[in-house]
Each structure stands twice: as C-alpha cells, then as structure tokens.
## 1
Amino acid sequence: MHDIWRDMFVVGIPLLEKILRPIVVYAFLVISLRLSGKRELVQLNPFDLVVLLTLSNTVQNAIIGDDNSVSGGIIGATSLLVTNFLVVRFLYGHRKLDQLVEGKADVLIENGKVRTQHLKKELITTAQLEAAAHKQGFSSLSEVEQCVLEPGGTMTFLGKKPAAEEVRHQELLGKLESLAHEIALLRGSPPPARA
C-alpha cells in the first residue's frame, strides 16, 4: 500500500523543473498559434482538429517529464493556470503588447465586397465564410455589409441596411395604406385588401 501512495503523491522530478516545464510549453504554444494565424482559432476543419489534438498529446510529455504522479499533475496544471492568469492580467494593462501578441482584426468583407486577398492571407475559403455567415443568420454573403475576423478568431458580421430611398418608399407605402383604410371607413365600405 505504501508504494501506491508514493507513486501517486511523490513528485519524480525537481519541483522547479515541474513548474518551469509548463511555462516553457505555454510560451511555445502561444507563439506558435500566433504565427500560424487566426484561422487555427476560427474554423476547425478535420485537419486542424487533428493537428490540435496531436499537438496537445505531443507536448504532454514535455510538460510532465518522467513524472506521472498526481502531485506532479496538479503542480503542472497549477503552473499553466497561474501563467495564463498572469499573462492575461499583464496584457490587459499593456494594450500595445496585447495587440502584438493577439494580432489585429482583419476585414474580410467591406462595403458588401469580399476581400479575397484577406481570405487568402487567413486561409479561409469563401465556402467557410458563407458557412460562418449562415450560422449568424444570413442567407448569403450578399446580405453582409461587413465581416471582421477578430484577433481571438471570431467573425463579426454586419448586415446591409436598406438604402434611405428604400426606407422612405416603405414609409410612403405605409401612409398610403393608412389613408386608403381611413377613406374606406369614412365611406362605410370595407377597406381594400393589403397587397
């Protein structure tokens, strides 16, 4: 019974190494994902999913080393969580550095026109862009005025607003229908059917 408790809770590598390993891997992954582009965060196709899953499995041994103890796992996980907390807090107060780490937003559709060069740069196909627009309630890209790929990987879509002439036309039609209804009531006949 003594061996079970020792294997579970006695850390097999030095404590400082146990803390530093997750920090080094964390820094590597943040830099690698930043360099690979926002696409890795946006639309996971089967290939991207396989890469992310195998990546997590690949760096697992780098994080834990030769230690499979529960204590070692808790120390490693705590190191990752604390590192992430400190990085996020630090970047919150340093916007320029945050922008350098996270990157800038990229406009994929502007004034209703798809910017194909930006799609190529982010490795996003038109079909993937359409699928993202469908998820946000647009039936086609022709309804989209602007689409922005945010630094965190989300896509923000803004729909086209009707032109001022269209709005005025609809208002006039509404007023004409209202007048036709009132005239019909004054004459004592049923109002005309709506078109």
## 2
Amino acid sequence: MSNIDPKERLIFALDVPTVKEADRFVAELEGVVEFFKVGIILHTSAGEGFVAGLVKKGRRVFLDLKFFDIADTVRDAVKQAAGMGVDFLTVHADRQVMTAAAEGKTGSRLKILAVTLLTSMGASDLEDVGIKMTTEEVVLRRAKMAVECGCDGVISSGKEAALIKKETGGKLLVVTPGVRPSGGSTDGHKRLVTPASAIGAGADYLVVGRPIKNAPDPRSAALEILEEMRKAYG
C-alpha cells in the first residue's frame, strides 16, 4: 500500500475574482484541501495580503503567475515570492527566464515550476505560431531545458507526465492541471486526464478547479476526487 496522503497532492485552484469568494472556499474546504493555487485572477484583486494570510494559516500556496520577462526582473520578482513563503511558483519555459528564476529562489524552499505547454493548447495552436513539432516534442524539449536551468518541476498535462519522468530520469516534479473526474466537462482544456490516469502516468500533484468550484457541494466534490486519488495510489 502507498503511504502517500492524497491531501498533500491535491491543489485546488482558487480561480475566483474576489477575496470574499476565495475565503468562502478556503473555509468550506477546511480539513479537506490544504494546498491552494492563486493565479492571475485572484492575485490581481487580492494581492500579497491574501497569499500571506493563507501562509499564516498554515496552508500551502502555489503562486501561478507564469513570470516571463528579462532575466533581472524575473530574478528579483522570484526573490520577492520566495520571501512570501509560498511553495510553488510558475515561470515560462524560456531558458533565460528559468535560469534567472532558479537563481532568485536560492536559499529558500520555493520550488520553480516551468510551464511547458498550456493544457488548452494543441497541435493546431503550435502551428499558428510557427512551431513544427508535436505537443509531446515541445513539452519534452522544454522539460529537459528546465532540468538544465535548475528548475524543480514542470507544469504538464498528464498525457506527457510519463514521458517527462522517463526522459529526465525523474529529476522533475510534474504538476498536472486540467484534471477532471471521469465523465466531467472539458472546460476548455484539450489535453485532459482523470486523477487516476494522471497519477498512473507519474504526476506528482494534481490541480483541480472547476470540478470542485462549480459543484453543488464543493466539499463533497473534493472528497470524491481525493478518494479517486487514494485508489490510484493503491
């Protein structure tokens, strides 16, 4: 039997526009969800104060801001994030950006996650920007570069998780968004996976938003996903 606690590996995406809504979900999921993603929607309205409040309450925080700027700016911004006490921070999988981010988090427990390819993107989207590679080829190339640059992990669809683990020797954490329970809505994601398939492929953390947020009973929805994860861990 696996000794992995699913509660440590489930991240709920707080993709809501107000602190009031975010606080309601945090309270409703008390004792069920311990790890929360704060992205550009909530961070724009709530800022550092809300994140600091989560950290003070002992919650783990995934700051999903996808930094993409010149190296000096990224390095300094990552230092600020590291000082906030968050656990994860995303940056774009650009070599200069990833290298600067790895330097900026030095001495902290912050883990830098490189965004390989948004789960809303498919082959046709790559063609639109002149990339003549498959989604798997793009993801793998960027994952290998993330290792070289000193990143701790990547954001990747569960469909590429196994390949990333194999080709990088398990050196990267794989954090998988676009996770939907069996029979759930796609909600704009093109490369979806279920909790079981993501875990089976080697994903270390699962990011779930709408299936919990839009459920009639978010707490029950989260518990059901945790049970799916528990069965997958065996």
## 3
Amino acid sequence: MLAAVMLAAAALAWPVSAAASSSRWIAVSVATLWVKPGLARPVDAPAVAADPRAWVAGMTTAQKRWLVGKLETQALYGTRVILLATSGAWSKVAVPGQPTPRDSRGYPGWVPTRQLSSVRPVTGHSVAVIRRPTAWTWQTPSLTGRVIELSYGTRLPALAWTTSSVQVATLDGRSAYLKRAAVMLRSRAAPWPKPSGAQLAAEARRFLGLQYLWAGTSGFGCDCSGLTCLVYQALGVTIPRDATPQFAEGAKVVRTALRAGDLVFFRGASGQIHHVGMYVGGGRMIHSPATGLPVSVTPLSAEPYSSEFAGGRRYVP
C-alpha cells in the first residue's frame, strides 16, 4: 500500500510543461473532469488526490446527487487528452476518445493540472486492456507490492507476459505487472475485431452491483451513458459519450427487433433523451439507473421504461 501511495504521489508531482504540443496524458488512475475549476468540496478531496475508490466510498447519496451538473466526465490512466487552457492549478482538456457534439476535439472539462503528464508514453507491439471493473498493478512478476488500482478499459503497453502475469509500461517509463486473467492482449498493429452483441452484453454484466456516479466512466462508478461508452470502447468501438448523441448515431432498431448489445433509449415528458441501457435479451436491459442505485438488469416492460421507450440503436453488425 505504501508503494501505491508513493507512486501516486510521484504521478501527481509530474510537471506539465508549456510545450508546443497540446497533448497531455492522464497520469492518475481516473481523472474526474469538472465543469469549472474550484468546485470541489472537502468531501471531493480524494477525487482531486486521484483516489477514486475512497472518493466514491466516502460520499453519501445526497453528496453524490450534488455532483449532477458539476462534473463533465472521467478519463482513465494513460488516456491522451488535448490541453485547451489553464487557470491556476487547473487545466481545461478535451478527451478525443469521448466524442461529443459539444467540441470536435473531444469531451471537455477541467482537471487538476498535477493529474496530467506532458511526457509521451512509451509504445509497444502489444496492448493490455483491463477487463475487470478494477485491477491492481504490482511491483513484481509474482504479483507482490501493490502499485496503483486501475479501471476497466485502461490500456497499457504490454512488454512481456506469462500465463500468470503481464509486464506493462507505466507513464513514467517503469514496469509494473498485472494479473494475466485481468487483461485482454491485443496487437497494436492489428485492427480490432468487431465484438458481437453477446460479447458486449457479457462485458456489461461485469458491472452488476456497481453504484451509479454522475459523469462516471470507470469501474469505480458509472452513469448510464458512461457505462455503455466504456464497454463499447473497451472492445474497440468508439461511440459518443452521452445518451443523446448515442441515440443520434448507430442504426435504428425497433423494439421487436432488439438484439443483445443494442442500446435502448428513454425520453421523459420533455421529449429529450434522458437515459440509456444495453439490451441483454429476453426483454431486459442492463443499465446504471440513477444516483443511489446499482447497475442492474431490468425488464423493458417495467415502468417508467416501458412508456418512456424511445427506440434502439445498433453499433455492431
């Protein structure tokens, strides 16, 4: 645990230089993007210090509800972002891997500058993609000495592996190790195969019981569209970050033709899309319902979902 604290502290201390390039990389487990600088409360100190597990665990349901409208999204360790502006100890960035009509460069928001690195990561021939809600990196190949807890979907250069562990490169150029069973290995040069709908649904089920977190896109907490975006991206398919633009893309699917992996959308009295889930078959969806509730499987026939159903969208054949 001490090693984890030391590495996290080192990551937070990495300077962000005024380099000509606007690229930066997320240097902490999960970076939370805020609507503007200075909104964080005392209870949000773990988020600023990049301890997402302690942050989520330390908030009451009411304190989580307060976050609605205050947070934008989250970005995972090693994710490239584009630096847009700085204000004091905060930086505004865009996340290219999270498309949005709000900004062609990617989803925008403010993060503590110390959560960013200006050092371009090393690359390898292979990539390890974390496939569990969270997974620890370790100091040794025998998986001793915890370093940092990372989220599902985090991608790291894979240097070598055995049947029990995978050696990965961290942003500071060091090596760490992950359980082999916790990751999927992909060749960096090979195109990603299109996942099946059944694969997408199976991946989404990994998050059953995970608590809803507004703007969350990680294995520490997800909102409704954060869950769908995260699962698709972990399997190599980029879709918009939010529910409304997700509904605007993909192929339309009527309710009677839904297949596992399709996204299902809901609109309220205002007529606007306000919720998304993933169809898992049998007339049911898996979704992250609302603050205070966990990811669960729910029948589409249940209210208010039955009367609010707006349509389905298919992103994979």
## 4
Amino acid sequence: MSFINPRTDFAFKKIFGSIQSKPILISFLNAVLYQKPVVVDLDILDPYLTPKLHGLKDTYVDVRALLHDGRHVIIEMQVLNVPGFEKRILYNAAKAYSTQLIASEDYTRLNGVIALTITDFVMFPEWPAVQSAFLLREREQLVNYAEGDFELVFVELPKFQKSLEALETVGDKWLYFLKEAPDLQMAPETLEAVEEIKQAFRIADRANLSKEELDAEEKRAMWLNDQRSLERRVLAKGLAKGKAEGKAEGLAEGLAEGLAKGRAEGEQLARVGMARALLDKLSEEEIARLTGLALAEVQAMRA
C-alpha cells in the first residue's frame, strides 16, 4: 500500500471534504476539538468532487462545514508559513461570521464560527502544547465576550511526537494519521480500530485514486517541495549575512541586529521568490494577497 500525503491541500480536502467524508469529518472534529461526541451531524459546504487540473490556480484551501447546531467550522491544513497567514485566518473567520446575514436580518440570527487550523510548522514556539485555542475575553477578568461565537483553534503537527505504541486517544490517532500516513506501507491495526480513520486510509490509498487525481496530488507535492527548498536557501542566506554583520561590529548587540536584518531580508527574498514561482499560476491580486507584496511589485515582476 502507498498513501497520499494528507497534509497537502489537495489530499486534505479529498479525505475530509468529499461527499463521502461526513462521518470522517465528524469523528475528526469530535476527537480534536472536544475529545467527546459533541458534533452529531454536519453538512460539508462546497465538497470536493473532482481534481482541477488548471495549473495551480484552483487550489484546495480549506474544508467548510455547517454543524447541526448552526455553527460554522473552517478547517484548514497549512503547510507553508506564508506572510500574512495569521491575518488570513482572522479574515476568513470574520467573513464566515459576517456573511451569514442578508439585508435587514436580525443580528441574533448569527451563529458561532470555529476556525480550526492544522499547521505543518511550529507557530507558537513559546509554549510546547500541540493544541491551543483563542477566544474573545476581557483582558483582566478573563470573562468571555459572546461565548461560543468566535474561536480560533490551532494544532501544530511538529510538536506531536507520540509513537504508534504511545497513542491513547482518538485525537492522538488522527494526528498520527496526518503526520505519518505517507510513510506507511499499510494502515496500523490500532488506527484501523477507529472506523472513520480506516475509511480515511481507504480514501488516501493511491490505488483508489484516478490518474487525474494522482497527477493533481503530484503537482501539489512538487510545488510544496520547491517552496520548502526556497525557504531553506533564503533562511540560510539571511542568517549567514546576519552573523557576518554582527561579527563585524564585535558586539552581542551587533550580532542580534545583524541576525534581525538577515531574517528581514530573508523574509523579503522568500516573498519575492514565492511570487515569481506563482506568476504563471495565480492572478497578480492573488499573489499580492498571499505573499504580502504590493500589487505594483507583482505587476512589475510580470512585466
């Protein structure tokens, strides 16, 4: 057996956002968000049907679901830590909240929004927890504002280090599936004991994919590998320059300043490199939004 990487946006939406994925998504949300069966039913909005092979213009960004109690859930798998990523999460969650009403409808009809983001990189290095949740709360008294209306949940996969033998909860098993599935030759029995994870392995099995789907998955995987290679080169160059500038001043403060300059230049080079890689795949407006570059800069690159 050979499985596609569930961390690519293509595979993630196929596994969790297909028409047949309803029980899979219910199990995943209950295990990761609640550790108990809270979600009893949902509707998958804009489900994955067939792969879109128009370069990379048609990307599979997230999975959206409407829960039985009216709450909206946005589930996103994010592999690259792109500029503006944190703000995009807020924007998408706020948009999902604000666009529920049509003209003249009462605000009491608004339902809560949960933005669940799984990252393939460390987002909060200041604490070791794999999962974190953010709510609207009063600064000193910690009283919730509009409790249940707005929640941002993050799962950082690199922090999940449990072995197969150490898995305890269904949530552990789902995170292990996300991290390890592409390196497995067969589905472990302890994971297949959960019927929904067994179904997820079946969807992820390359033998069950069409040629068009395999082509789409390969394109996404190659693009992600290219971007990661670019990030590593840019980071190495930026840190090397920062260290050199710091040593030239001969002071610890100089080194810190040099490293900061190197990182800043590295981030800018990463934005430019990513924009150039996307020129023949996305519109100028989309590239500017994803990279954080000014629209005029992107237009100048294309020219």
